[in-house]
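Dear colleagues,

As part of the handover before I leave the project, I'm documenting each prediction I ran so the next person doesn't have to rerun anything. This entry is a single chain, and its sequence is reproduced below.
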Amino acid sequence: MYVLLSTAYFPPIEWMAQAVQSKGVVLEANEHFQKQTYRSRTHIAGPNGLQKLSVPVERKNKAIKEVQISYSENWVKDHSKAIESAYANAPYFEVLYPDVKALLCQPFETLWELNTASIALFSQWLELELLQEETSEYVDNTGIKDFRDIHPKQTSEMNFPLYGQVFQHKIGFQNNLSALDLFFNLGRSSWDYLNALK
């Protein structure tokens, strides 16, 4: 079974679970960019609670594949620092963080390129070929399982079992964060966690 997903920046756990449990991923390449969604935002658990990291974009282009990243502010440094302070004490941080930092330091022009690289990194960590096709046009009803509506402001219908998080003792368990949280805390066991989600 294939799944249809919108592009995402360091996708959330729900997005990754749909991808891992499918035969392959079809990415929506013909939608309009939507603000305040996982297309340009990711959530991590920092020392003071939920942290939302957003990639600033130029507003000129509406087509998702053409949305330009803005480098007028140093968001790369901010995101790198935020991820480091959130996960420096996680069990797999030292192994995985260099990959994240290297990815963020690449001068991507478009949000699509950045997101594709972050999804490819997660696939590499899982040692999994997440077969990615792209839509050729925008269609409301595609005939395949459609998860384009995964959204930070909507509660997921998935049940997220607890796993150890760095600041859990302080802020409680945070569910459906960026899969970065899962990888830094669970390492290779992330695949089992993603595969077991219902």
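The chain has a mean pLDDT of 95. The first helix runs from residue 13 to 20.

All the best with the project,
I.
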